[in-house]
Amino acid sequence: MRNAAEAGAGGAGVQSVDRALSILEVLARTGEAGVTEISGELGVHKSTAFRLMATLESHRLVEQTGDRGRYRLGVGILRLAGATTARLDLVQEARPISRQLAADTGETVNIAVLSDGSALYLDQVAGSSALQSHNWVGQHIPLHATSNGKVLLSGLDDDDLEAALGALPTYTSRTITTLSQLRDELDRVRDQGYAVAVDELEVGLTAVAAPVRNAHGDVVASMSVSGPSFRLGDDRVDEVVAQTVEAAAEVSHRLGWGHR
Amino acid sequence: MRNAAEAGAGGAGVQSVDRALSILEVLARTGEAGVTEISGELGVHKSTAFRLMATLESHRLVEQTGDRGRYRLGVGILRLAGATTARLDLVQEARPISRQLAADTGETVNIAVLSDGSALYLDQVAGSSALQSHNWVGQHIPLHATSNGKVLLSGLDDDDLEAALGALPTYTSRTITTLSQLRDELDRVRDQGYAVAVDELEVGLTAVAAPVRNAHGDVVASMSVSGPSFRLGDDRVDEVVAQTVEAAAEVSHRLGWGHR
DNA sequence: CGCAAGTGTTGCGCTTGACGAAACAGAGTT
DNA sequence: AACTCTGTTTCGTCAAGCGCAACACTTGCG
C-alpha cells in the first residue's frame, strides 16, 4: 500500500507543504539563501517564499544567519535527525565498528544501503587523516561507479539487477559504462567478497567496500573505506581491503549472520 | 529583523506547512504512528493527515514501516541533518577536539547549547568504552540536573536565570530541586570553572562539563564527558575534569576567546 | 466463517487559507 | 541624493486544501 508517496510524487500532494520542504532541500544544497533567491528557485512570489520560511523558522527548521534576511537550516533538524538515526538499527550496531575501522585506517568509513536505484549513505565516520572530508550521509550515489554500489549490486540476481539500474553515466575515463562489463565486475566482487573503485566516480578517489549481511546471508548494506588515491595507493589497498572485510563481517555477525 | 518567526509563532504562518511539520515532531516523539493517531494529535480530519503524510513521504521525510499504514521518520531527514551539522560552526570547530577528548577518556563527549529553557545537545562523539551509548543529539535535556545544564546556567545573570528556569523536577534523590540550592551550585561552577553531576538526571550516570566561550568570554556552549558511574568514579573524575576543561578551552580559543 | 469495528484511502464540493500584487522600509551603491 | 535591490507587510481574489461521505482492507470476536 504505497499510494501515499505515489500521490505526492504525482503532484497531488499538498502544494504549500511541497514548497516548504523544497526550501529545506535548497538550503541543504546551497548552505544559505535569501528570500529572493528561494523564490527564484521555487518559482513563487517572494512574499510566498517569505511566509513559508517564516513557518519553517517557527519550527526551528531554518534560522537566520548573522546577515540580514539570509537563512540556513536550523537546529530543529537535529532533533528530527536524532530521532531518525537512533532508530536505524543498522547504523547503531555498526557505529563502534565503523569508528574502529576509521581509527585503524585513518580514512573515511561509510555505511550505505540500496535505495531507489542508487546507494544511500546512512552513516559516516572520518578517520584522523580525513579532516574536512565530504559528507556523504543522506546522499544518493551512483551504483556502478562506486565500491559501495558494486557491493550492493552484487547481492542482486539478474532480474533485480536490471530493475535497479538505469543508464550507466560516465564520470571519468575509468567508469564502467556497459552492462556486460558491470556483470563481469560483479562476478569478481562475489568471488573475492569485496569491491574496489579507483578513479571511477571522480579522479583521485579510491574506495574499497565489503558486504554487510543479515541473518539469512543477504547483502543488506555495504561498508566502505575511502580516501584520496595518493593516500590509498596499490601498496595500501590490500591491507585496507582486509580490514574492511573483517569489519563488515563483524557488523554482519551483530546482525545475526553466521550464527548457527 | 525577526518578524518571520514571530509571524509564524503567532499562528499567521502557513497552516498546512505548520501541520506537516507538527507531524514530523509527533513522529520524532512517538517513534511511529498511524494516520488516525496523527489526525488525533493534530486535531484534523484523517484524510487531511493522510494527504500531509503523503507529501512528507514524497520528500522522504517519512516512510512506512513494515506494518500496514504506520509511519516513521524517513532517511530524508538525514540529508538535511548532514547539511545542518556540517554547517554549525561551533560543531565544526569542536569536532576534532571532541574526538580527541573521547579518545583520551574513552567516554561520551557532547556539545550542548542553551535553548528554550533546556540544554540542546548538538553533537556527540562516543569513546571506545561507550558502546551502545544513548544518543543525545537533538534532544532538549533538563538544565538543573545535568553538568551541561549547570555550565550553561552559570553564564546567566540572575534575571536571565529565572527566565530560563521553570519547575525543577526531581529525577533521582540527588536532583537539585530548590532555586537556592541551584544558585549555590552555580556559584561553585563559576568558581571552579566546571560542573559535575553524579546520579542527578538518572542513577548511575556521571558527567562533567566545562564552558565553551566566544571571543567576548560569554558562555555560548558546554562541552561534557559522561559515562556510567561505575567507570567514572571519584578516582577518575578529577582527571576527566582536567581533560574536559582543557578541551573546552581549546574550543573557546578556536572561537576567538582569549585572543588579544 | 461471517460480521462488526476500526483504520487507511479516495473522490468531490465548498470555503477559507494561500497566493500574488502593490506598497513600504531599509541597506548598499553610484 | 537618487537609484537599485532585497526583505517585509497588507489586502483582495481564487484555487488549493479542507472535511465529509463512501469505499477497501485488516483484524478480532462470537
In short:
The structure is a homodimer of 260-residue chains. Helices cover 48% and strands 20% of the residues of chain A.
Write the layout of secondary structure elements.
Two copies of one chain form a homodimer.
Chain A (H helix, E strand, L loop, with lengths): L2 H10 L2 H16 L1 E3 H8 L3 H13 L3 E3 L5 E4 L2 H12 L1 H17 L2 E8 L2 E8 L14 E2 L5 H8 L3 H7 L14 H14 L2 E4 L6 E9 L5 E10 L5 H21 L6
Antiparallel strand pairs in A: 1-3, 2-3, 4-5, 4-9, 5-6, 7-8, 8-9
The structure holds a DNA duplex (30 and 30 nucleotides).
Overall description:
Chains A, B: GO terms for molecular function: DNA binding; DNA-binding transcription factor activity. Chains A, B: Residues 76-257 form the IclR-ED domain. Chains A, B: It comes from Nocardioides cavernae. Chains A, B: Residues 14-75 form the HTH iclR-type domain. Chains A, B: This is Glycerol operon regulatory protein. The structure is a homodimer of 260-residue chains. Chain A is of the alpha+beta class and 260 residues long. The first copy, chain A, has two domains: 3-79, Orthogonal Bundle (Arc Repressor Mutant, subunit A); 88-254, GAF domain (Beta-Lactamase, 2-Layer Sandwich), CATH 3.30.450.40. In chain A, 48% of the residues lie in helices and 20% in strands. The first copy, chain A, is built from ten helices and nine strands. Chain A has helices spanning 3-12, 15-30, 35-42, 46-58, 76-87, 89-105, 147-154, 158-164, 179-192, 234-254; strands spanning 32-34, 62-64, 70-73, 108-115, 118-125, 140-141, 195-198, 205-213, 219-228. In chain A, the strands form two sheets. In chain A, strands 6-5-4-9-8-7 form a six-stranded antiparallel β-sheet, with helices on both faces. The relative contact order of chain A is 0.10. The model of chain A is unreliable at 1-11 (pLDDT under 50). Chains A and B meet through α1, α2, α4, α5 and α6 of A and α1, α2, α4, α5 and β5 of B.
